[in-house]
Amino acid sequence: MASSISTHFFFLITLPTFVIFVFSGYATAQLSPTFYARNCPNFQNIVRNGMNQAVRSDRRMGASILRLFFHDCFVNGCDASILLDDTATFTGEQNAFANRNSARGFEVIDSIKANVEAACSGTVSCADILALAARDGVVLLGGPSWTVSFGRRDARTASQTQANNDIPSPFSDLATLTSNFAAKGLNARDMTALSGAHTIGFAQCFTFRNRIYNATNIDPAFATTRRATCPATGGDSNLAPFDATQNNFDNNYYRALVARRGLLRSDQELFNNGAQDALVRTYSTNPAAFRADFAAAMVKLSNLSPLTGTNGEIRRNCGVVN
Ligand code: HEM
Ligand SMILES: *[C@@H]1O[C@H](CO)[C@@H](O)[C@H](O)[C@H]1NC(C)=O
């Protein structure tokens, strides 16, 4: 009798637990916060100093590096594929729709990488540098912190097609955005929290023009203000901040959504009489809830199918395969 009970317990508890470990371990098996503790103990200080300097000379850089990391992770995982430069014989991700004339901050990662190489050459991946730089940028702008695990390796390839397919469009509706994130194992709550990254940084006129001239779910005074610097034709690259405090990582993005002052269509879709309205309202009045959920979702984003072990390489120069 006793042995039959324990056998049942094995199948009811041990076996399912084992299965969960195998599948979740697949993505994060070898990542660890202490991965470089022995071989590059100063790595985290070098990245923090580099981001400090970059954000001091250009506050927007915290936002730009965070977006670079998001666009890296959404395309074949967090493998620094976005950092590979196009050449005559290689087409990477930098000229995909979402990145061309838009993704910025490459020179900041290159400069940090040069300093890391000087301290411990051939040891730290560009993918890990980008993951940590994104976290440090958020912290420098007043956002939450989270523990970054390391051990990602750098891709030897990149895919413009995959970037065009997988990076969400600012013209999308809620259902499409939700399925874009679900395809990466991120649920709607993760999506709504991660979109709060738009509490920092800017967007170009062509990404929100249709909304400010044609949408009905927009505060008219806000539309008028935005039209002043984003004409119906021309001025495609004119910048507007996502919220009124674009250099502070706060919850004003969600307050803007509740006021129907979302900049992109994809922003306002999170508060447009749909399933995410309640969560947006929560974040708009509870900054601590937003900070906690954002940090948790960033850890999930950071763990998207990394190359580990002997896969990929440690690039010497982030823009070029070794
Ligand atoms: C929900 C789907 C998303 C869409 C459709 C979207 C789209 C966009 C667009 C169109 C821009 C402006 C780019 C330009 O005009 O050059 C932008 C900027 C930005 N995005 Fe997103 N985004 C999304 C989610 C995210 C996520 C998940 C993050 C990070 C966790 C993020 C971080 C940023 C940041 C920080 C900026 C400002 C960058 C800067 O000022 O340089 N976005 N996004
Ligand atoms: C407004 O919508 C119409 C009809 O879809 C479109 O032709 C026009 O270009 C839009 N206007 C702007 C400024 O985007």
UniProtKB/TrEMBL annotation:
Keyword Disulfide bond: yes
Record's cofactor remark: Binds 1 heme b (iron(II)-protoporphyrin IX) group per subunit.
CDD domains in alphabetical order: secretory_peroxidase (cd00693)
Record: residues binding substrate: 168
Leading EC class: oxidoreductase
Record-annotated site: Transition state stabilizer: 67
GO cellular component terms, A-Z: extracellular region
Binding-site list for heme b: 198
Keyword line: Calcium, Disulfide bond, Glycoprotein, Heme, Hydrogen peroxide, Iron, Metal-binding, Oxidoreductase, Peroxidase, Secreted
GO BP terms: hydrogen peroxide catabolic process; response to oxidative stress
Subcellular location: Secreted
Keyword Hydrolase: no
Residue ranges of every copy of the Plant heme peroxidase family profile domain listed in the record: 30-322
Main localization category: secreted
Disulphide connectivity of cysteines: 40-120, 73-78, 126-318, 205-230
Family statement drawn from the similarity comment of this UniProt entry: Belongs to the peroxidase family. Ascorbate peroxidase subfamily.
Function: Removal of H(2)O(2), oxidation of toxic reductants, biosynthesis and degradation of lignin, suberization, auxin catabolism, response to environmental stresses such as wounding, pathogen attack and oxidative stress. These functions might be dependent on each isozyme/isoform in each plant tissue.
Descriptive protein name: Peroxidase
Taxon lineage: Eukaryota, Viridiplantae, Streptophyta, Embryophyta, Tracheophyta
